[in-house]
Write a structure and sequence with these properties.
This protein has 239 residues and is an all-alpha fold. It has two domains: 7-85, Orthogonal Bundle (Arc Repressor Mutant, subunit A), CATH 1.10.10; 97-235, Tetracycline Repressor, domain 2 (Orthogonal Bundle), CATH 1.10.357. It has twelve helices and no strands.
Length: 239
Amino acid sequence: MSENELPAAPRMPPREPARRRNAPRVRALTIDAIAAAGLRVVDDEGLDAMTMRRVAQELGTGAASLYAYVDNKDRLLELVVDRALSELDPPAADGPWQEQLKAGLRDLRTLFSRHRDLARASFARIPLGENAMTASEWMIATLRRGELPTKVIAYACDLLPLYVTAIAYEESVYAGEQISHEQMLEYVGQMRSYFESLPQSRFPNVVAFAAALTEGSEGDERFEFGLDVLIAGLAAMAG
């Protein structure tokens, strides 16, 4: 096996039974073409629309043809997520490791924002495709520059993408509900008024922090705060 070839990755237990594989038709598909078609469906119609049948339709074939290459929708989701990860271009290893790590995590958030609600597909799934492995290799290398303990690095490789994915998923929900910026600001103002109107004898801290709790509650400021807290916490664990 050459360095350009990866061994077969382990598979999560399927959430739906695998179909019997049929022999590929004469006009053979490819895994890359299937993943690209699935990502197009997610971008145009959303994650829920991405079924085996719909992706087959995108490719101008029948669902039975896909099952010759892909066991089920779970496997299709894995392929689509890894296809999206191919768009990542890890930052060069220059400058402080903390800033390089933040830059890479910002890129991951931007990636998810480009692909509608794809972040939802990443929850409860462990990406093991080639592009995911490339991203993991970069993250481990960056964290090792901080001279962090092995276990800290291992946990950080789970925690940091999970944070970004959660933020991206929440943002995709708001986008899918087509809530405008003005509507969100109005809602945040209503929240502040609600906090201020609570009985101070029962909720003295909520009332006192009504303004602070409803400032910077959206967008980049909140995301950057989370990054700062997480990266500073990791840096404090350096050996």
